[in-house]
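The protein record filed here.
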Amino acid sequence: MTPLAAMLVVLALAAPQEAPQEKPKVPKDSVELTVVGCLKGRVLKTIDERRADVESGPYVGARSFHLASKKKVTDEIKRQQGHLVEVTGLVKRSSLDEKGITVGRVAVGGGSPVAGTRSMPNPADNVIVMDVSSVRLRSTSCTPQ
């Protein structure tokens, strides 16, 4: 073996190998969810049944999530409009907690609207934001199979 070939072999062995892509760490105040639902615009309406083979994280039931994502994932969301999809992303734990804010041992939550206040609640206040990492097509129709 020539010295040049030997040096190339040594350099090839010493070069850092590409590590398998690791999932980003989930912040302590968030939870990673994988849910199935129907896309309409940037809103995902989840189906009410839990799919143990697909879904991960706490059970969320039938909810709506506003989807926030990077451009590549946003383009995929646009392509899957009106379809049943599987979405994985991060959600703040406090958004899933319906008890309200905990102060010491007491939970403080909002009450029902009072008649005569003349202010309508904003529907956007109750929509949970999901930071989406992936979208996968499950069906071309929005009815679960």
In short: The helical segments are 3-14, 71-79, 93-96. The mean pLDDT is 74.
